[in-house]
Amino acid sequence: MTTVALRDVTKIFSDGTVAVDALSLDVADGEFMVLLGPSGCGKSTVLRIVAGLEDPSVGAVLLDGELANDMPPRDRGIAMVFQDFALYPHMTVGDNIAFPLRLAGVEQDRRGERVSDVAGALGIGEVLARRPGQLSGGQRQRVAMGRAIVRRPGLFLMDEPLSNLDSGLRAELRAEISGLVRELGVSTIYVTHDQAEALTMADRVAIMRKGVLQDVGTPTQVYGRPATLYVAAFLGSPRMNLLEASVYAQLDRHVALDLGAQTLYLPWDDIRSRVVAHYHGERIVVGIRAESLTPVPPDQPGDVLRGRIRYLEHHGHESLAYLDIGATAVPVDEMGAGPVEPANGGAGRGRLGQFVQRLSGRPAPAP
Ligand code: ATP
Known about the structure:
Bound molecules: adenosine-5'-triphosphate
CATH architecture of the largest domain: 3-Layer(aba) Sandwich
CATH class of the largest domain: Alpha Beta
Number of domains: 2
Order of helices and strands: EEEHEEEHHHEHEHEEHHEEEHEEEEH
CATH superfamily of the largest domain: P-loop containing nucleotide triphosphate hydrolases
Radius of gyration: 26 Å
CATH topology of the largest domain: Rossmann fold
Largest sheet: 6 strands, mixed
Number of strands: 17
Structural class: alpha+beta
Strand content: 25-35%
Distance between the termini: 60 Å
Shape: elongated
Helix content: 25-40%
Strand order of the largest sheet: 6-7-8-3-9-10
């Protein structure tokens, strides 16, 4: 399958818009690469450059190691799937799927075989005689997928293929598409602004902002060890807590994190201390995911983060407490049985007080 290498690719449109800025990115053989970022960050432009529908202003596009800047789109062995499905409304489903084969001059019997194989794999064998207007959104997207895979391309380019579908169907199809693509082993670049889609489908995720690549890695890497503050704040819901702190390391004793309203003393034998100690005397930003915080009882030894609960949010399987120390959220599923009310009623306030107590713990004496 096709490998892709982008080298310092920049795209400046005629009106001066820099849509892609010095992007270098590799997609390995059979890899499922997701381009993720907010609207307008340049994702679709990257896809169009790889497809040959747009020329880079600067930089190189290599397909299987060969410079492809001047290669016509039809010679690139690429199939594209779009958000609006782009099916021909006057053709049957079968003819839509067969269309790329017809263009490639494949004879009719062979076309019929391939179409029924693909339709069977996608579960749309029953609707081959219908026209796109007679299908559900999910079926239309399967037809679009069918048309993309029927010619067995070396590379799939998918531009927000699920964004016109409702959320239940999106979740179903994202598993289906990533399963199918992996079964076929076709290298894929998949564009989305939906982080759940990116994190669940990708082998690796490339995160873009204003045309610039911010981070690239496996979903676990970019979520757990984001390369930039932007990525840290962009990925995850609730967003990562980002707390500004000054670091004071006292060798062999402790590392103090001065958060302004409170100071945390991390014991020296804590692995985090060694990491943070490196920034002695500097201002840093500490990133903590909500799920890494645990509510503790008041008599919990050691240092704890303390904050007043501003409001609670229930999500069924867990609850989140938003505290006044930045945008901090804490999973509160362990905070005891019974419903917890928001803080604007007498009873609610009473309950919240109790939870603040349990969360806050006792400040540890400074060593
Ligand atoms: P979306 O998710 O909304 O599709 P995107 O991340 O795919 O956004 P692009 O469509 O690649 O972003 O656009 C990147 C930037 O380039 C945007 O500022 C856009 O307005 C601009 N742009 C795209 N096409 C052109 C064009 N033909 N001429 C001028 N500017 C363009």
